[in-house]
Amino acid sequence: MDKTHYPIMNREIVEMFAKTDRELFVDCTLGMGGHSYHILNNYENTSLIGLEIDRESLQRAKINLSKYENRVKYYNIDYMDVFQKIDFSNQKISAILVDPGISMYQLKNEDRGFSHNINSPLDMRKNQQSEEFKITAYDVINTYSEKQLTDIFLTYGEVKRAAVLSKKIIETRLFNKIDTTFKLKKLIEKILGFPVKGRSHPAARVFQALRIYVNRELEGFEDFIKKIPNYLKKGGKIALLSFHSIEDRMVKKTLNDLSDNGVIRLIKPYPMVPTDVEIKENSASAPAKLRLAEVL
Ligand SMILES: C[S@@+](CC[C@H](N)C(=O)[O-])C[C@H]1O[C@@H](n2cnc3c(N)ncnc32)[C@H](O)[C@@H]1O
Fold it and tell me: Which residue's alpha carbon is nearest to atom 12 within ligand 1?
């Protein structure tokens, strides 16, 4: 396993799995296979199902997990479709993990357009092969109306001065297409300013909003969470990581509803967060929140 890859809140997730029958782990967001590696390494009788929407990432995960080949089944699918595409009627799940968003591997890729720190074409699709995901960040920035842009920035990024930024984008693209991450970042800096020390760059929220929109990350997310308990064993565990407040609010609300209806028990009433030691080792973990639940 690549030593530079840090699966976020891994210790907490591995410990949670110890409190199940440890038969079947479903990793909805395989990424580089970081969490899965530790599950397979710690529990030798566990079988694992790994889902990943990004074909290139799935190939990397397969390499990283090659040692455990006969215990893993891989699927290049959207995890929101998992219960429709995989038959769990013969084996219920011991624990399920969702660690959404993108990996460092995707963020640092020079062709994908996920990072405002790397100059690349504005794409941002995780699944570049799918007919369903044809719209790129370039299409959004260069063809959407001022109102549509403002809505996206507000809904998925809670971007300050979103309307002013959208207006500037419309004016700029009349003369020059905004076709790279750096062109967009420069525009954002003109409107929203430069980063204050210790704070994230103002472009981060705009990029987050575009990524969520392009990949329809939150469409059907609550419905997906609601379905999970039906496929887990009694005592099975649900681990949901989130990286921004919009995602965490959805997770919190849906888990609370399931708990109020007596379907699950919240393992802790509040989210767990990375320790200072973890944040020091991996600063990208800082915004993470982990919510754990047990099926009743
Ligand atoms: C934060 S990374 C996961 C890292 C992983 N837990 C690890 O330790 O290596 C998120 C991964 O989930 C994938 N992903 C995001 N949304 C997905 C979806 N709807 N279905 C399947 N995979 C998805 C991304 O392509 C990315 O590789």
Answer: 29
pLDDT per residue as tens digits for the range 171-202: 999 999 999 999 999 999 999 999 888 788 99
CA dihedral angle for residue 222, residue 226, residue 229, residue 232, rounded to 10 degrees: -50
Per-residue pLDDT, 157: 96
Mutational pocket test of ligand 1: of 126, 129, 133, 208, the residue with most ligand atoms within 8 Å of the beta carbon? 126
- Distance (Å, whole) CA 79 – CA 126: 13
31 Cα: distance to centroid of ligand 1 (angstroms): 5
Stretches where the chain sits below pLDDT 50 are none
Q: Residue with structure tokens 């971007």?
A: 159
Residues with CB under 6 A from ligand 1: 7, 29, 31-35, 51-54, 57, 78-80, 99-103, 106, 126
Ligand 1: residue whose CA is nearest its atom 16 = 100
**Full set of structural domains in the chain with CATH:** 10-101+219-295 (3.40.50.150), 114-214 (1.10.150.170)
- The predicted structure's pLDDT at residue 18: 98
pLDDT value, residue 4 = 56
pLDDT of residue 1: 62
- Which residue minimizes the CA distance to atom 13 of ligand 1? 29
| Residues 241-261: tens digit of each pLDDT | 999 999 999 999 999 999 999
